[in-house]
Structure formats: structure tokens, C-alpha cells
Input
Amino acid sequence: MQERIYSMNTILKIFLYTLLTVSLVANELTWQKFEDALNSAKQDDKILLVSFYTDWCGWCRKMDNETYTNDEVKNLLNKDFVTVKINPEKSGTINLPSGTITFKQLASELGVRSFPSTAFLTSELLLIDVVPGYYEPSNMKTLLNFMSDGLFKNLSFQDYQLFTEAKKLNETNPSHKLNYVIGYFQLTFFDDKEAAYKNFETALNKDLITKEIYAALHFASSENSNKSKEWLKKAESLGYTEKSELDELVINFVKEIFATR
Output
């Protein structure tokens, strides 16, 4: 009986060890050759991430040691991306469908001007964006989610960062200006009228009584509804004439909110 218990314990230990090993291996980040990565991106419909670095770049090493070793970052990368590392200062070539190109030429064609820089391309080699500079794990997760969710089709990453920062700030320091900024983004870039309307209405209830907030409520309301017409009438009574006035107000609010941050 003791031998059987010993045997079962041994089997359990081996099983747990194997499970842990498989889990660790699955979460490892694999840097592929560009050609192999491109094939994988096409086959699995993933985004191609190219990390440009140099041997002398301290921030590149910091990103390797701190960002690309982060478990959450690795999970996101393994799920939706195929990863490549390229040093443009080293000799090397890439065989593309259009011909052969050097590492340096690729960096130049993508507009890489500093290191580290992270380029994102579709599986058809269409450039999505090149993001310069060091990204710590939290910001890298935001960037990867922005890319994998396809938000780059509607707005720049800088604008997306602004939107996410405004939401975070509104949780700790709520204000009518932040409600307006958040609602503006939801309406303009995400076409989420319901969420935008709630933020505009909150801003109005916090005494943001301007032609712009009434116009914003008009655009966030159901088209041609009585409520929409009422909001527009109020906006026009205060001198509202065109939609660009909403843009000007959000720019002014953003400058005020983030000027000292």
C-alpha cells in the first residue's frame, strides 16, 4: 500500500512539473527571423512587431530586461503578435516578396530615427505605426491592446493615451471638463453615443452650461429625435454655428487639464 502511495505521489509530482514546464515554455517570447515572422503573421492573421535596437542603446537593454520579460506583456505578444528584433547597425538582409533589403534599409524605409523604436506592420507589410522610445510594461500593455483591438484605424496612439489618461484621472479627480473630453472621444472616435451622452449629461449637471455641451448632447442623441432637436435649439440660442466649436473646446480643456502633468 505504501509503495502504491509513493508511486502515486511520484506520478503527481511528474505531472505538476510537466504542467509547469509547458506553461513556462508557452509564455516564453520567441524572436523570429523577419521572413519566418512574416509567414507566421500571414498564417495566423497576426500583427508583426519589429523591435529596432543597437548594441550601445541602454534603453534598449532596459526594455529587453524589464518590458519584454513581463508576463502580461509576453501573454499579449504571444496571443496577437509575431515578434522580430533587428539591429540596423549590423549587416544582414531580408528577403521580401518585392526583393532583398538590408536591415539598415528597412529601418530607413519605416522611418526609424532613434532607438529603441517599435514598428507595427500588417501581415501584408503595410505600416501601422512606428513608436519611438522606451516603454515600461504598463505603457507597453496599453500600446499592445491599442494595436490588437484595431483602434489604430480610428485614432493615433497619442490620442488613445490621452483618452485613457483622462478616464483614469476622472476616477480620482472627477470634473466636468474631463467628462466632456471623455465624451468627445467616445462620440468622435468610438461612435459610442450612449456612453458619450452620459458623460456630456454629467458635465452639464456639473454646471458646464455652454453652447458646446448642448451641441454635443445633440450629436450624441438619437438622430432626428425630439431631444436632439431640443439640444440643438439650446446650443443655437447661445450662438452655436458649427461642429468645429466642439473641437476647439476639447483642445482648450486638454491644455488646461494636462498642462502641468
Remarks:
- The chain has two domains: 28-151, 158-258.
